[in-house]
Amino acid sequence: MRIPLSWLHEYVRPDLPLRELATRLAMTGTEVDRIHHHGVDAVEHFVVGKVRSAEPHPDADRLKVCTVDAGEAEPSQIVCGAPNVAAGQTVAVARPGAVMPDGTRLKAAKLRGVVSAGMICAEDELGLGTDHDGIMVLDDHVPAGTPLREVLPIIDDVLELEITPNRPDCLGLYGVAREVHAATGASLAPPPWSEDPGTLEPLDAAVARVVVEDPDLCPRFTARVFEDVRIGPSPIWLKARLLAAGQRPINNVVDITNYAMLLTGQPLHAFDLDRVAGGTLTVRRAREGETLGTLDGLERTLDPDVVLIADAAGPTSLGGVMGGQRSEVEPTTTRVLLEVANWDGPNLNRTMARLNLRSEAGARLEKSLAPEQTLEAQAVATRLMLDLTGCTLVPGTIDVGGPGPQARVIRLRDARVERLLGAPVSREESRRVLAALAFGVAEADDGLDVTVPAFRRNDVTREADVIEEVARLSALEALPATLPRNRTGAAATLGVLQRGRRRAEDALVGLGLSEIAGWSLTSLDTLAKLRAPELAHVALRNPMSEAQAILRPTIVGSLLDVAAYNVAHGAPGLALFESAAVYRPGGADQEPGLADEHHALAVLLHGSVGGGDWRSPAAAPADFFTVKAILEHVLATLRVEAGYAPPAAAPASSTVAPPALARMSLDGGAGWPFLHPGRSAAVLVDAERVGFVGEVHPAVAAAWDLPAAAAVFAIDLGKVLAHAPETTTYEDMTSFPALRLDLAVVLDEGVPAALVLDVVRAAGGSRLVDAQVFDVFAGDQLGAGRRSLALHLEFRAADRTLTDDDVAPARAKIVRKLAEELGGELRG
Amino acid sequence: MIERIAALRAEAEQAVAAAQDTATLEELRVRFLGRKAELPNLLRGVAQLEPAQRGAVGKAANQARQAVEGRIEERGALLAGAELDARLLSDRVDVTLPGAPARPVGRLHLLTATRREIEDVFLGLGFSVVEGPEVDSVVNNFDKLNHDAAHPARSLSDTFYLSEAVVLRTHTSPMQVRAMELQKPPIAIIVPGRVYRRDSDATHTPQFHQVEGLWIDEDVTLADLKGVLLAFARAIFGPDREVRLRPHFFPFTEPSVEVDVSCFQCGGTGFLKAGTRCNLCKGTGWLEILGSGMVDPDVLAGIAAHDYDPERWQGFAFGMGIERIAMLKHGFPDLRQLYENDRRFSGQFG
User: DSSP alpha helices (H): ranges in A569-663?
Assistant: First the structure.
């Protein structure tokens, strides 16, 4: 909302420098986005001049060489190109040094060899209008040398305000003036509609008629009729004001509707009554598929949610949003019907969104104005029509719907004000503030009875809303800063998941990994690059782009994106992690319609992840075991034990198209299309799948242009932490030493190490507290297809130091079970 | 006999004292105390002596042997120490070479680091940390937060919809509703998390992060909001900061305020030491950090599972952008850098 200061000053003139006014407005709830300087600069160089002579230019047919008396001792010579310049005129002169509205500084110049000391101005050159057909000719009684700013509004300051959506009353200049009045105490002039030159009796139905078929969508429709209208340009002052407020002048009638809207906040629309077929306007819902040519030159197809104004020949205007071409005011118009109506805000909002059409009028009306505002705008516009268009007013007013509901009275309790704000506001102060804002105020036992003005009807409906008015204008600036008493009865804490997440993140950072923040939104193309186009996912209905059209069902794509970005920027060795949500279609566990979100912790290693320094030049590549070691480190940090299972079956070849409706899941155990099928595993905690670990499929790495191998893991941190002990209980591990022994067993190489350890643990008895693989060896001497696993075993008793003899039976049983169940034999 | 012992002892002691290295000392030990040396042989021969002599000779020989042993040990320790010193002095490395193997430094992402910093401040002020779903219902994201049907934030151009009734949450505020539905008052929580809006430029990304705050009790006031946010601002931006409340409009708070913190670059003056206008606060002396207000009575009244009668219960809510706090603190110009994850950028933080 642009507020020209000169216009504001007609209604309120606070005794404050402009910047202080802006600050005061900001501190009372009206944000000032900018302060513009509108119009010319170096204003002392703009003066009134008298054209003493205007002779043809010797070398240019269209130019004239003028002698202009600008109030100085010697007249100036000015070359002018305007066709209408003539001796005897009083004109606006810009002298050298003047700065024009576009910022150019005028200099003395030679035009076709003739010196010109300035220029004689047309109205568009001064920001006063759009006319460039000729220079402005001013009243003769103004003496030469008069500063031009005393005659014409060539400079103005403009406040550009950000009006919050609850305050459509401030989308009119008088509403802003009321705010300035309340915020500064400067006195406020009566509203511009306080004297209505029109009358309110019904208009003669033979002149024009209005029928409202859908009063819920159009609560009030008013109209007045003007005859003998002469369409023409508006006077300079009006055009200058519109331009300063950001509106382009068109003609006097259209300018009057815009001016009245800017002043009152209430949009108006002028119809050429002679082009309203049948002289009757009908407000109704559009019929399905009905079309209308709007003033922006487009043909709009409508539906029954759109409310329109029709005449006997069909739709003529889009209610509240935009007029139609068929009945718009033209240069030949003589009879004007001025519509000022109130429309249902939410419906207009939907209409504009659906038609992708916005207008100044619609932007105001969608905020649900007060029906009372219609007659205010009629009063303002009627005055201007009579003054500026030479018309006569047909007596009476069409008024369908009438004023809005009775004003609400709200009790404002002094005690409640203090309890909500934490500081008292005196009743007298509340009364002053509310009265300044045009609320009615009456004394009550415990406070005030506050009557809400119509233009605040939608915004102020409860005591809290009234308290806000008092707070913003008189309590906020001096509000004390206090701290609440915590009576929740509980210490403030992080949740279990948050603590565990911090622990896991810190463990990864400690290992030298760097965290990333990926996009939750990704693309179907990313799924295709992951070789998982069928991965079940959640799609947006209104994405901003194809690249961000779905919610990521796996975090792996985000890590690959970041890896590819950094590789492309010269960082081949990467150790990255992300700790954030992934999203899958909601299941039975979720609230209807919501997604299945879980917090994923995921790592990606790419290229060299160790070595490569001056002592050990060989770099260690990222592979299954380097990434698994990190996973194990994290899980051990959280005290969670995990198992690892290879995919249940080889994943389907990417060349075989899966059934179109198949919705793939990553949790089924059939493998992960983006991982190396032989070097990937499910991560299991207590038989529950909590994630996967593996090397990135070479085809996937290639799809991201990664030059080296990459390995990843991703776990559902919530599932993992459900298995993490919140506390641990003491166990005596120091009173008696453990007995350690090593064992090497030769088995078929297809026997998984985990299975070997399972057999060992089952056979080892209660004193076996740990069993680990510490070496793997394969060689000719073991036979083809055989390998040796070297195991560390640790036995412990709570009550004494164990001897070799003590554990001999357990060791024998382990050896026997390994032989019986797995075909293992002791080595060496 | 006794004289011979004394002479041997004197000879040995003298030789030991003169030894200049541990190898010489070892030779002396063999020479004076070895199996074939004279002194031990004397000692072994004591049994063949007259009984009257045995005591005196044995004692003298034993004392002599112990004394020589002691001297050798002393001298040995001295020489070994000197030799170690000499060896270590010649065993030099180039201490300016880097450590190996290198241990690369990991970093938290700036958003996580900032989020934790914010969480910790509010934990200290008495707020528990809870989280909610990013995909949420229109009911929780808009309706129960008192957004009227025409509120522009609801439009398809502002908000990501998954269906007619489900959106990507546009703020962390729906968790206000969820938390109150789950827990009876009093309640004091913050809600960090990812949120989404259809917006993309240097200061907006379609996804960003907020921290919501909510404190409801019978007597929590707007002045308490100011106090809490003042404590927060000082913890994050420095002990000399001030805050001011600027009236604003949010559908789910009444009264609503935006909160500004005094500029930490210019000290709130709007001007830098050189007299130039402060570029951070644009000369205003204040930086907007968040939106907040007293929870709207309609929001409280809309809670079904517990009694949040707005005549009895009241409190404040606020919501701040983690990105904004991080940008203000660290001075980078383009929000999108946070999501580029260029390690030349992210390595500077966390």
Answer: 624-637
> Phi/psi of residue B149, each to 5°?
-60, -25
Burial A504-516 (b: 16+ CB within 10 A, else e): bbebbbebbbbbb
Mean per-residue pLDDT, B285-289: 94
* ipTM field: 0.89
pLDDT at A564 over 70: yes
Residues of B in contact with A548 (CB under 8 A): 206
User: The whole model's pTM is what?
Assistant: 0.88
Please give the pLDDT value at position B55. 84
Task: Say whether A571 and B343 touch across the interface (CB within 8 A).
Answer: yes
CA distance A480 to chain B (A): 6
Q: Are A298 and A324 in contact (CB under 8 A)?
A: no
Residue range A718-736, pLDDT digits in tens: 999 999 998 899 988 899 9
| Residue A341: both structure tokens together | 């109506």
Q: Is the Cβ of A482 closer than 8 Å to some Cβ of chain B? A: yes
| Cβ–Cβ < 8 Å for A801, A764 | no
Chain B nearest CA to A748, separation (Å): 36
- With tokens 């055009």, the residue in question is A239
Count CA atoms closer than 13 A to B260's CA, side-chain side.
18
Residue A594 with chain B: CB contacts under 8 Å: 133, 135-137, 166
Q: Is the dihedral of CA A113, A115, A118, A123 positive or negative?
A: negative
Residue A153 CB contacts under 8 Å (≥ 6 apart), including other chains: A6, A39, A128, A236, A237, A240, A241, A244
A737-769 tens-digit pLDDT: 999 999 999 999 999 999 999 999 999 999 999
Going by the DSSP 8-state scheme, the letter that residue A330 receives in this structure is: -
pLDDT number for residue A668: 63
Between the CA of residue A768 and those of A632, A797, A806, what are the distances in Å? Answer: 22, 9, 12
Could B257 and A487 be called an inter-chain contact, meaning their C-beta atoms sit closer than 8 Å? no
- Residue in A462, A492, A594 closest to B188 by CB: A492
Lowest mean pLDDT among A565-574, A765-774, A792-801, B303-312: A565-574
